[in-house]
Specification:
Keywords: Ligase. It holds the Pfam family AMP-binding_C. One of its GO terms (molecular function) is acid-thiol ligase activity. It comes from Streptomyces chartreusis NRRL 3882. With about 1050 residues, the chain is of the alpha/beta class. Among the domains are: about 405-470 and about 475-490 and about 500-510, GMP Synthetase, Chain A, domain 3, CATH 3.30.300; about 940-1035, ANL, C-terminal domain (GMP Synthetase, Chain A, domain 3). The strands form 9 sheets. Strands 25, 26, 34, 35, 36, 37, 38, 39, 40, 41, 42, 44, 45 and 46 form a 14-stranded mixed β-sheet that branches. Strands 2-1-10-9-11-12-13-14-15 form a 9-stranded mixed β-sheet, with helices on both faces. Helix 3 crosses helix 5 and helix 9 (about 260-270) crosses helix 10 (about 290-300). Residues about 1-15 and about 455-525 have low confidence and may be disordered.
Length: about 1050
Amino acid sequence: MTSPQVAPHPVEAEAPGNLAAQLEELAERRGWGGRTAFHQGHRAWTHGEVHDLAARAATVLAGHGVRPGDRVLLALPDSLAWVTAFLATARLGAVAVLVNPELPAADHAFLAEDTGAGLCVTGPGLEERFAGRARLGADQLMALAPAAEPAPVHQAHAHTPLYVQYTSGTTGRPKGVVHTHGDPRTYHDLVGRRVLRITAEDVTLSVSKLFFAYGFGNAFVFPLFSGSSVVLVDRRPTPATIDELVARHRVTLLYSVPSAYAALVAERGHGHEDCFASVRAAVSAGEGLPEGLAQQVTALLGAPVLEQIGSTEAGHAFCANGFAHNHPGTVGRPVPGFEVELRNRDGHPVPEGEEGEMWVRGPTVTPGYLNRPEETARTLVGGWLATRDRACREPDGSYRHLGRADDMEMVGGITVSPLEVEAVLRGHPAVREVVVAAVPDGRGANRLRAFVVPDPPVRDGLGGRAHRPGPGEPRRVQGPPQRQLRPVAAAHPDREAAPPSGATGRLVNPAERNDPVRPPLFTDRGFYLGPVFRRAADRHGAVFVTLDRPLDVAPSLGVDLSYTVLADLVEDLSGRLWEAGVRPSEQVVVHKADNVDIVLLTCAVSRIGAVPVLLSPALAPAVAGQLLQRLRRPWLLTDGATLDGLRELARSGLVRRTLCVDDAPGAEPLAKYAGAEPPPPVRLHPREPALITHSSGTTGVPKLAVHCAHTMWNRLVPQQALGRPTRGEPAALHMSFVHSRFYHLLGVLLHFGSPLVLITDPDPAAVGPLLARHRPGIVETHPNTFVLWEELADAPGAPLSRVRAYGSTFDAIHPRTVRRLLGASRRRTPWLIQLYGQSETGPVAFQVVTRRSAARADGRRVGFGIPGFTRVRVTGAGGRRVPPGTPGRIEARTRGRILTYLGMPERYDRQLTDGWWEMGDMGYRSRLGALYLIDREVDLIDAVHSNLEVEDVLMSRLEELREVVIVPGADREPVPVVCVRGERPLDPERWRRATAGLPAMAEPRQWRFEDLPMTATWKVKRVEIARMLTEGARA
């Protein structure tokens, strides 16, 4: 029969057009810009921030080829990235395809093919599943968006396709359901506002995820149309997580499915009532809600339970209980604007009081299935939707749900509803969750089998007959297993699941087809800088760190500080920054005079969830200004001397506020906030941007490299393994404090409790006595610094005599230097670890050199990939691998690769091909796979096979050379630029003998070592030297 006609509830005049524009304009008109829209972890985003970020993200998507009408597949967990990607897609007039990120790989491939997705925006670990299609990682999208310009809104109308959601697929392949730009506003006006009476003061927590129809309305549509807020959780929350989030955020509306409510009652039913004091209603949908469970939930929450029913095809609920009318045990009355009719299997209305299948007609029913015209015709008849839900109508107009028509089973010649059997079994005190399905027995007949999750107190009493859901358990949105998928494996646990056959129409769970165990999709592995000193202090608090100069932020502490003192100082600085107003995800530029407090400030920024942006003090103010323009109004943390060159920039509006470590005029001193209480540490998601450094800039303006905790962890772990043999040894480091390599090495040394000597000034006259006093067992610095320190090999006090391990990073190191360093150690078996890589990749190859191997060392050999973490290859034209010994471009594949270049995504994309990163170097591999470096591509000179190789020969033949660099001159001829120790003139005769047998070169140009243009990591800027020589020749 047909329900009584209900006049649609009057709604605000429709704001036709693009959904993203509707929501943005509504937030501005209602003054919601500063109100919180989304909470996740320790962070919150306002409505204004969400819409601004989405507008900028649309530009990123457009840059990846997205055009109006294109389909953009979103395989993401619930997160701000999901919200941003959806709104950005809508803004462009494209169609979002909402996909469960936890589906098996085969299902993802099917959905991408079925929709013809032009771009796949993926969560962590999923990129390779969509190989062959345009892909964009969510972390890359979120890193690029802040620096992009807002995209214009593409005009749309209420009936323009907006998104596609897939049905559960319980009876076959899932079907794509199309919804339009006008539907979400209707969900809110008819259900959110009319039925649930949501206001801007509400706080929502939805167990159902955003890629499902139920979760999409609860956690996306309702908050953005009402000005309220929602708590996002990127994975299925446990009962303990639910009550913690409800209590912390004062959640007022809790949305869940019955099975999750059952778990909540079972695990948090006693002594946790106060956690739920803020909840004003619990909404249930997705499966039948037993009346006894509803009563238990009400008792626990102290709030009514409002049961609803909806479908993917309807978009959200079409029947619902509300505050005005709540009939427990039913799914409520039709939502205003919807009609419900009960029909028999022939499609005719049933008499009053009889059960039938629910047919629905309403304003948000889908116009059809994607690419499924025949199924659309069967399911949508005359504007009515066949839901396949069975129900009967109560006298008050409510509907009592009786299960799915698909669930009816023929057992012993009788049609049985598994739902009715489940209801009886669920009443037993020993049963927490149960699903009943028909399973074929040995004679081919069907028998009902109950799969029971017992209540914990009696679990042992049920013995081996209880069913414990496994990781591949087929489920719908949440809750019990899909009964159509379970029986195949359950009936025959000793054999592989087979394709369906027979009248029962059993389906094979796709997850069970994949034999290998899949790793967790969302890993928590991450290297976080914020707590690194505190964790070290907790383990090795009395170990000391020695500096070569006092800290600028705390000069009174002197130069010998324990791990504990440094951990306290990091927390003190984080309290000052928090009190000044720095908040999670905001960018904080650390740009000051070179000193160890750069490290402490970086850790303090990271500790409160903000993103440190490390700029070298060696950068020219004009270059620093160009980098600031790529950021989004960052904070500037500096000192007076550095600020003098940046005053115009600081006043230009490029920075939010300027904080100074000293009392520089015109800046706010950090000391103003001394004594502020440090907040609890904030831990960002491991895939979110966590650190921004810059490339060396040897060929021009540096690029801003975006790191996250997960990629940093993938750099840390192999280095931790390499450092294990020297754990606990005193370590002396001279490295750039704005380079990511320093922080990974620091993490390893702090973990092992090594006493540290941190060196700012590499002058051998000062370094020698310092090392002689502390006798380090580990020394790491840049290759050019090691050249400078060769004289320490025979310096007074034998400062290198106790070194067991040297570390040289990123550039090749001259064999002569290696031999001298290893010869200076009096340890029995010292070694040097050479790491080859870039800021963008971290180390991708390594080799260990000993005294014995140093005698025959080839300076061009940089070793092998790091097993389990990196791979290297050499390619020629077309990106094909070349045979051993053949020169080509060096490429690396690494888990430690940065997320993107901030403000230069196209440059990042050019260097990345199917996961392989172009290093910009030319080289070759030996037959055994060792990698040899020839030259940087930009430094190649036609007349010289390898500039670096010739330089190694000259360094070995001329002991007086401190450095030699070969660059192209004005006519591309090789020009050697030499630096001689002691600044004495180069002996022409010795030079002539040393160059015998080498390629012809111009006369050498002798420069002072201090005049060589270098990067912050002491890399020689060859391109700059060539430019200087060319301009000098022209002059």
